[in-house]
Fold this sequence. Notes:
By secondary structure, this protein is an alpha/beta fold. The chain has 16 helices and 19 strands. The chain has helices at residues 16-27, 66-75, 106-111, 120-126, 138-146, 148-163, 172-175, 177-185, 190-200, 224-235, 277-284, 289-296, 340-343, 372-387, 412-423, 441-459; strands at residues 7-12, 32-35, 47-50, 53-56, 62-63, 82-83, 91-95, 98-101, 215-217, 239-241, 246-252, 255-260, 265-273, 300-311, 323-325, 334-339, 352-360, 395-406, 429-431. Strands 1, 2, 10, 11, 12, 13 and 19 form a seven-stranded mixed β-sheet that branches. A seven-stranded mixed β-sheet has the order 8-7-15-16-17-14-18. A three-stranded antiparallel β-sheet has the order 5-9-6, with no helix packed on it. The longest helix has 19 residues, at 441-459. The radius of gyration is 23 Å and the shape is globular.
Amino acid sequence: MTANPTDDVLIIGGGITGLSAAWRLAEAGRRVTVIEAAPRAGGVVETLRDGDWQAELGPNTLLARPALYETLRDLGALDSVILANGAGARRYLAKGGKLQALPRDPISALLSGLTRPALPALFRDLRAKPLDGPDESIASFIRRHFGDYVLRQFIDPFVSGTNGGDPERLSVRAAMPRLALAEGAGNGSVVRGMMAARKAAPPAGDMPENWRRALVSFPQGMQSLPRHLADRFTALGGRLLTGRKVTTLAQSDGGWQVQDDSGTTYHAAQVLVTIPAGFTANLVEGMSLSLADDLRAIPYAPMIAVALGYAAKDVGHPFDGFGGLIPRLEGRRTLGALFASAQFPGRAPEGHHLMNVFLGGRNDETITALDDDALLAQAQSDLGDLMGLRAPPVWHRIHRMPHAIPQYEVGHLSLLQRIDGAVAQMPGLGLIGSWRDGISVGDCLASGQRAAAALLGQTA
């Protein structure tokens, strides 16, 4: 215990959120130490390189937005960015045992057998009235506005493929806040509200035209992003410690005291915890059982990433887009596949294709019990007819993530209110991470920077 903390800020967790906060704090002149349990920084962002194959084991891309562009510019990383090929704009959805391309314009939507049955739902939405009531699931919200076909054919696979979630349980206000805001802005109609929001959208600032809504990665994969953050942080005098698991967190006379599994003790005026909610609960349990219980009440969905490499001659699909999602009503366990080598160069050897395939999620948690051979067989079976596969993959890797994606289920916002109330009674402590404020890599970047600004404001 000491009244003169060694660090201004100690950050527990070296994922994107923690590194983003650390960089901004060090940039402002604060003494910062980041402690990460894994042997490398980056959290779930991880790239595998095996000869000429390069596969993402976690998030595959970033969506270009002005805030992301500004962050990469400030990091000095713009020159190392690559944008997805133009073909990446094409997206597929499985229906009736076939991958069908989603329409890109209103005329195509009118002619497509995939989207034409959904068009009457637009009139249903235009007649909808705003609902001012308790928290609502995404499924309930979509049924009210667009009906069951839109939910089952479009929303369910999107939610399962991007969040690993169950629309019957996810909160629309927490997981898809733009939909809820659009309902209010459109006086009940989501379509009117989204059109109004698009007209009122702020300018893109200095972001180039070719960046708008583009998909972003790096030649050496997504793991380049945490490397850029870590390099800038340490260049500014920050201390990054990996392979050290924090075991205790306690208040001390001059701030906070932290101990890791080697017995090393650290002291800081402020502590920012950026690890998953369940691990955070273990650290705060000694200070507040109710806070720990609320953190543990946030469920996580398991995901399994299966990277499949094929000779191009053995793939019947044109392999010309971003990828495809598979609705549950198709009766397959695979959630979707991203066409990695169609998006970015350097992902597969010449004459080959690489797919990043995902299984699991909140509605299929038992799939984690399958061994690797069974998972590989499942992915090939699910994708065989959809992709016109004529032979087994020539290369593959399987990566299991038992606690991959936090689930913002109905009641999540109330949980966050209680968590914030409890943390407010502990000056100098901050709890953030992908379990709040968004699950995407871009969300985590922004969350870390907001947390840094808040800590700087407390000590200004």
